[in-house]
Amino acid sequence: MAKRFRVLIGGAWVGEDRKGIDVVNPYDNSVVGVVPEATAEDVDRAIEAAAAGSRAMAEMPAWKRSEILDRISELILRDKEEIAAIIAKEAGKSWKFAIAEAERSAETFRFAALEARNEHGNLVPMDASPVSAGRFGYYMRVPIGIIGAITPFNFPLNLVSHKVAPAIASGNSIILKPATKTPLTAVKLAALLEEAGLPAGAFNLLIGSGRIVGNMLVEDDRLAMITFTGSPPVGIDIKKRSGLKRVTLELGSNSPTIIDEDADLDAAVARCVVGSFANSGQVCISVQRIFVHRNRYDEFLQKFVAATKKLKVGDPMDKGSDIGPMISCEELTRILEWLEEAKSIGARVETGGEVVDDTCLAPTILSGVTKEMKVVCSEVFAPVVTVMPFENFDEALDMANDSVFGLQAGVYTNDIGKAFKAIKRLDVGGVIINDIPTFRVDHMPYGGNKQSGLGREGVRYAIEEMTNIKMVCLNL
Question: What is the C-alpha R_g of the chain?
Fold first, then answer.
């Protein structure tokens, strides 16, 4: 029988008497664990516990928060092999990417430990105005309170870490609702947080439906903030129903990469293979639309197809595997339908398109696409990438901007003028020069424009979202 897990609420491990949710390995459909499904009463209890936890966290000195965060980082590295196995089994992420996620998450907590010790405030020059000359003023950043975090399946540790770590660093408490498909990594993290000495109630874990758990967190006025990573429709609904809460939304994308005539083609090919197909393309900043200068298009496509064909598809627990399964049969069916739609109106499959081991999609490259196809205009979230030619750099920038999304974009060029033109004109949250849009390190500001979301993550910038400014003015 699959192991039954409990969840952490108010410092107590509970849920053995709850209805269970099966956690299924998307590669072979085996049940890898059973987690308790939260009730409305559980949500209410978690909010009450978080209220007490927020008081404890707000009173905790910065050095103590920093020590706890450093300890969490150490514990993740200690258990990274176990964590990677959990990620590979419940998310279907290939081992090498699962172990990399564990290591990145440790770094995220380490960055948070550093930020917890930094001063978050500044002097205000009161004598800049004759009315306030003689007064002394400064502002400080104070914790916002209880934060509700709702996270997706594709990075079940690091995207959780990007919400939990800055919440702790800034002295808040947090209630986490992970994706029901990948909750076991969050259960493991909860155990590490407890081992690191986090106070009871500072972190609370709820697993369940958006209809019950998500809606209650979004609508309850005791929460000060919702931080959500997921789809645009859900994010827009959260924004509508959250009242006066602060809301951070990390939503979708169909990330473009521009490869100009003077680009290092071999470097671009190698990185585009990684950016298009890592984690089966189930990454918000996966390379989805590649625009190549007409004079280099055929050469790029030939090299890109050849490199893609070398990827190994199969069991994510196989340390030699590059591509694992889609997260569910439903998602596999969806992308196959999108491929059929694209082919029916003129797209050509240069490689891939077939199902491997019943649950994996072979990495797929499409040419002959148009902007109306779903594989171009929507977020594909699968190992599928499109390649399109352009005539001049201005046209490429327009093609990249022709999207409802604006998360990150990659630009390959050796012309510094074109690089800065791209930086100025691309309507995205991040422009990555001579690399793919999939590039991200965990201390940089990260977030998007348009339907890609609101606010920014990256530990320092998330702390700004998770704190309020308190102005102090002394009339001495």
Answer: 23
Q: Output phi, psi for 106, to 5 deg.
A: -60, -40
Q: How far apart are CA 335 and CA 87, in angstroms?
A: 23
Band of residue 51 on the pLDDT scale cut at 50, 70, 90: very high
Pair (239, 295) in one structural domain: no
Residue 1 scores a pLDDT above 80: no
473 among known catalytic residues: no
Residue 456 and residue 409 in one domain: no
What's the CA gap between 451 and 405, in Å, rounded? 5
288's tokens: 């989805």
261 and 308, same domain (yes or no):
yes
Are 436 and 470 in a shared domain? no
Distances (CA, A) of 405 to 85, 209, 274, 448, 452: 33, 27, 21, 8, 5
Is-catalytic flag, 284?
A: yes
Catalytic member of 37, 107, 115, 250: 250
Structural domain of 137: 7-251+452-475
Closest CA to 90 of 159, 3, 182: 182
Are 371 and 391 members of one domain?
A: yes
Do 312 and 456 share a domain, yes or no?
no
Among residues 467, 460, 454, the alpha carbon closest in space to that of 250 is found at: 454
**Neighbouring residues of 322: CB distance < 8 A, sequence distance ≥ 6:** 94, 96, 277, 311, 312, 313
At 119, the pLDDT band (50, 70, 90 cuts) reads: confident
Asked if residue 265 and residue 207 are part of one domain, the reply reads: no
Are residues 292 and 361 located together in one domain of the fold?
yes
Say how far apart CA 150 and CA 210 lie, in whole Å. 9
Query: Does residue 311 sit within a domain?
Result: yes
- Angle among Cα 173, 178, 183 to the nearest 5 degrees reads 120
Whether residue 2 lies inside any domain: the answer is: no
List CB contacts of 252: < 8 A, sequence separation 6 or more.
231, 232, 284, 379, 381, 405, 407, 451, 452
Q: How many distinct structural domains can be found in the chain?
A: 2
Q: Which of 37, 90, 284, 331 is catalytic?
A: 284
According to DSSP, the residues that pair with 338 across neighbouring strands are: none
pLDDT at res. 50: 98
